[in-house]
Structure formats: C-alpha cells, structure tokens
Amino acid sequence: MLGKKKNSEQRTDFVYAGKTQTKILLEQPSESNHYISQKSYLYGYDVAQLISKKSFAETLLLLFTGELPAAANARLLERLMIALINLGPRHPAVKASMTAGVSKSNAEHLLPIGLSVLGGKENGAQEVAEAISFIYANIDKSPQFLADSLLKESAEELAQHSGEFHLVAGFGNYYGSIDELTQAHADAVLSPTVEDKDQHCTYIDWGLAFVERLESANIGILKTGLAAMVFCHLGIAAREAVGLYQLLCAPGIFAHGVEQTHKPITAMPMLSDEQHFYQQQQTLVGDRANDK
C-alpha cells in the first residue's frame, strides 16, 4: 500500500501544460475577437517596429539568441548568408534538388528534398554542429599544438587518402586540395570582423590559427567550419546551428532545383553503374579521440 501511495504521489507531479508555452513570441489578442492577434512581440520587441527599423539579419539573430545584435555582428551574419546562399550544383544537397526538379517533382517538395540531404554529417548541418562542439571543447588549448597532434595521429590515413578528407568536423580538404573558394570566401566574411578593434574574436582567432597550422598538410577550412566559427562568435549553440545552417543554404538549393523543372529529363546526365562508387563512412580523428 505504501508503494502504491508513493507512486500515486509521484504521478501527480506529471501534469501536462494547459497550453503551449514559448519565450519567443507574445501575441496580444484583438479586443473585438480574442482568437486573432492585434500585435505580436518577438522577445519583447514589437514586430511592426522590427519591420520598419531592423534588418532581416538583425531580426534573425534576435530570433535565435533572444537579443538584438550589435550592428557589426549583424553585418557578419549577412556576409555569411551571402557566402552560403549557393553551395553550387556539385553539393549533394543541391544535386538532390536538381534531380528532383528535372524529374518533375512538385515545386513544394524540392527544398525539403535538398534540406534532408543537407542535414547529413559530411558537409552538412550535422557537421556544423560537431564543428561548434569541437571549437568549444578545445578553445582553451593551443590551436597549433592541437593541429600538430591531430595531424600526427592521422598521418598514415591522410597519406593513403586520395579523395576528400575531413581531419575533424569543419576542417579538411576538397578533392585532395585545400578548398580555395571557401578559403577566399572565409577571408571576405571574417576579415572585417577580425580587423575591427572593438570586436573580441576569441573563437574566430582560434579557428584561423588552427587552419593556418593545417595548411602545411594540405588541409583548410570547409564551409561547415566557416559557419561554425561565425556561429560561435555570434553565440549560436550547436543544436540551433543545425537549422540555421540549413536556412542560410536554402535559397540556392531551391533555385537550382526549380530551374531544372523547366527542362526535359534528358538535360541531366544519366550515370552508368560503372560510374558510381561507394565510399565507406569516414571516422573523424576527433570522433576517435572522444571515443577513448
């Protein structure tokens, strides 16, 4: 009996909320009809005022962090948004959307198809989250010492690897070389922030020093690593970064996909079975270190 009474007391604490709760948005009901809203507030800011006075990037950061950003941080996000607006037709997420488009999938399905691929671990949103976790976990370590240690640990595997190699999430090579395009875009995105004396660039400085040390091994920054460094600077956590990265890459994924809907299916090459190869999933050095 005592056991039943105890269980009964515990179950009384397990009560569902009476209504959905959120700190993000407050809707003020209309005086004439309480089922519709008269005003809405995003983290306390009148959305009507945000529309007239703030940029999309400022409002986006407010949505994900709960605070309006400094102007310099909003400009940093805007630069990253441009850098990621089109991953290019060779990216698997874009290619998936293009294939669906030329196959005459409904237009409303193209973006979800591409984003489902972009959510993956290699060059996808999950890699951004892992790169953020890697930076946060190692921010107090010397980036040069850490780079040397990881390169030494992976030297044999790197020497045998002829294709794309990710040393850790966000950092690797592309078709066997440093990704020069991403390197140039990273300079354009990060330099104004690094050169701003009013900015404290702890995470960006650490990441750049880490990348510089890797260059001798033909390894550089990847798009996922660039996004991770910016998100760390802006206070975006790993879980939120998954969706934000997909959001920033979405325009190019849809644009390429919908373009193909206007073309015949013969506009896309049909690869033979002999032209496909299957790659065993790579285990990152950082993952192995965490498993120990």
From TrEMBL:
Gene3D superfamilies: Citrate Synthase, domain 1. InterPro entries: Citrate_synth-like_lrg_a-sub, Citrate_synthase_sf. This is Citrate synthase. The lineage of its organism: Bacteria, Pseudomonadati, Pseudomonadota, Gammaproteobacteria, Alteromonadales.
